[in-house]
Amino acid sequence: RHHNPVDSICRKIKSIQMMDQVSNPALQIPKFQSQNFNSPQCNIKKNLEEILKKRTCRS
Predict the structure, then answer these.
(1) pLDDT band at 15, cuts 50/70/90?
(2) Chain mean pLDDT for the chain
(3) pTM score
(4) What is the secondary structure of 22-36 as a DSSP string?
């Protein structure tokens, strides 16, 4: 039996929001580290990409 697709989408969104709350403090850290590198913005982008990759792997 198939379960409701809307239901599973809602659950995914909720879990992403939960993960956002967890990863927000982690997002603050790269900003301090990035001062050692050439371009802070580029570094933050890389960190965001890594977080997104981890998120897509988990779901």
Answers:
(1) confident
(2) 69
(3) 0.32
(4) HHHHHHHHHHHHGGG
Contact 51, 26 (CB under 8 A): yes
CA angle 16-19-25, nearest 5°? 140
Domain encompassing residue 44: 5-58
Burial (CB < 10 A; 0-12, 13-18, 19+), residue 40, is middle
How many structural domains does the chain have? 1
Judge whether residue 47 has pLDDT over 60.
Answer: yes
Q: Which long-range contacts (CB under 8 A, 24 or more apart) does 51-55 make?
A: 51/23, 51/26, 51/27, 55/16, 55/19
